[in-house]
Amino acid sequence: MAIRTSKELMALRPPAGWRELSGDQRHAHLEQQGIRIPLYPADWDTLEHAQRMA
Fold it and tell me: How far is 14 from 48, CA to CA, in rounded Å?
């Protein structure tokens, strides 16, 4: 499942015990949910440098 909208992202709730998970475990969980870290717009790779910095 890939997160496609900010509404879907905001509806996502962390699993029980989230605070006790290591950074690697958190990263793996977010990847399973389809969330890229760091967060970028879907078209980030196609934007020009000036557009990214705006």
Answer: 34
